[in-house]
Amino acid sequence: MYNAKYIIPGIIFFLALAFVPVVYNMGHQFEVTPELPKDQKDCVLPTQEMRDKHMQLLNEWRNEAVRDGNRIFVNAKGQKYVKSLTNTCMSCHPDKAKFCDRCHNTVGVAPYCWDCHNLTPDQKSPIPPVAQAAAGGH
Amino acid sequence: MAAFYSFLAVLALIVIPWLGVGMGMGALFGIVLPYIAIIIFMVGFTMRIVDWAKSPVPFCIPTTGGQQKSLPWIKNSPWDNPYDKKGVFMRMVLEVLCFRSLFRNTSVKLQQEGPKVGYSSEKSLWLFALIFHYCFLLILVRHLRFFMAPVPYPVHIAEFMDSILQIGLPVMYQSDVLILVGLGFLLARRVFDGKVRYISLMQDYFPLLLLLGIVVTGVWMRYVVKVDVIAVKELAMGIVTLHPHMPKAAIDPSVYAHLTLVCALFIYFPFSKLMHMGGVFLSPTRVVPNMSRRAMWVNPWNDPSIKPHSYAAYEDDFREKMIEAGLPVDKKA
Predict the structure, then answer these.
(1) For this UniProt entry, which segments traverse the membrane (chain A) (predicted)?
(2) Which residues constitute the domain of residue B212?
């Protein structure tokens, strides 16, 4: 083999790159457990649908509530919910850090919900919308 | 026809896992195939490089795209016509990162006024090739979010920059759009330019369509069906932690189609033109410095038992016969 002093380190470097994830994850147990509410069984939509498409639903809610003033969501079972992340979603899933962030951080997603919904991770109760309106917010 | 067969092959690589998973063969496409693919890729890649490294380079054959270093008052171009290792290094860096030789592309056209040949600059191949390759790299880096836990900071940065326009939800990646533009151009060039079509074979169309298939299934998963990303990461993490297992939640069949196409790419890679990834570092026209006049290049094929034979020695061997035939000789007697 010619030029072995360049080619062998080159090949080793290239193959080592492929093993970066293997070494990086070595000894770690991969587990994702978002904390589910204990007193509630059903979400606004079936679980699998929420897992896959909750961002789409929240986006629609945001647009309909803010732009059209349409604040009532009716699901397939005919149950009515207020279209609100802070008051509806977070009344069952109160802790962002134990629910939202568990999955989002795992797959490196940084949703911009929290640019406006400025919740501290340990917030116990949802922000009442009335108080916000009185303070001049929306 | 070559394009059509390539298209059918890629279509089969989508349909087979799609149906296979429906018949309960998820573990085959999700676990067994990726391991086979990565082993074939690594072994095949290494063997191909070693095979090239074993081939001797009989001549000093650099591409000389600029003025050679000669007399001190003639300005030379050390990157286009390198005369030492430093120059070669710069040439390789620019070649690998900027595709400098594609930037030099020209097109030949007959002038309209008469039979006059005109050469004009042709940058489209360079531009779209560059777009495609950088998008592909960025997408590869972004995919590390499925293979590493916790997600490393550089991957977050790549993700943030790539979706900075915040269009739609899930947010659109600019690289997803640009890679389609790049691949679309590279394919259209082969299909619609008669001169390129004439020299295009199945091994040109297949990788392009395979990559397009990967991108399209990827876009489909993210923007249309919105697959369960946590389950996908569970599957991916099982593979890289060497404890493969199928995730608890069901995964959409399009994920398996995407994965199978990627595995097909890895398996096909060492046997294909895609080996230009490693081959660019072993191309003599790029990595050899142009010093054919200042350093002796010994052909590694040369048999060491054959000694140099000068003209003087040749004349000594044949002097009588040459004089007899009336040929001029340096030494008479």
Answers:
(1) 6-24
(2) 2-302
Chain A contact present for B147, CB below 8 A:
yes
Residues near A22 by beta carbon (within 8 Å), at least 6 away in sequence: B240, B241, B242
Chain B, window 160-179: residues with a beta carbon less than 8 angstroms from a chain A beta carbon: 160, 166, 169-170
Q: Give pTM, 2 decimals.
A: 0.88
Q: Are B104 and B124 in contact (CB under 8 A)?
A: no
Q: Which of A58, A60, A62, A106 to mutate to test the interface with B (most CBs of B within 10 A)?
A: A106
Give the count of domains, chain B. Answer: 2
Instruction: With beta carbons under 8 A apart, name residues in chain A contacting B282.
Output: 7
Residues in chain A within 8 Å Cβ distance of B45: 14
Residue B228, chain A, CB below 8 Å: the answer is yes
Same domain, B307 and B296: no
Please determine, for residue A136, whether its predicted confidence score (pLDDT) is greater than 70: no
Q: Would you call B282 and A4 a contact, using CB atoms and an 8 Å cutoff?
A: no
User: Same structural domain for residues B174 and B156?
Assistant: yes
Q: B217: which residues sit within 8 A by CB, 6+ positions away? A: B14, B254, B257, B258, B261
Least confidently predicted of A29-33, B205-209, B251-255, B317-321:
A29-33
Over its C-alpha atoms, chain B yields an Rg (Å, rounded) of: 27
Q: How close A21 comes to chain B (CA, Å)?
A: 6
For B140, the closest chain A residue by CA position comes to A18
User: B150: which chain A residues are within 8 Å (Cβ-Cβ)?
Assistant: 105-106
Backbone angles phi, psi at A16, to 5 degrees: -65, -35
How many other CB atoms are there within 10 angstroms of residue B21's CB atom?
Answer: 24
Identify the pLDDT of residue A130: 44
Do B210 and B323 reside in the same domain of the chain?
A: no
ipTM of the predicted structure?
Answer: 0.83
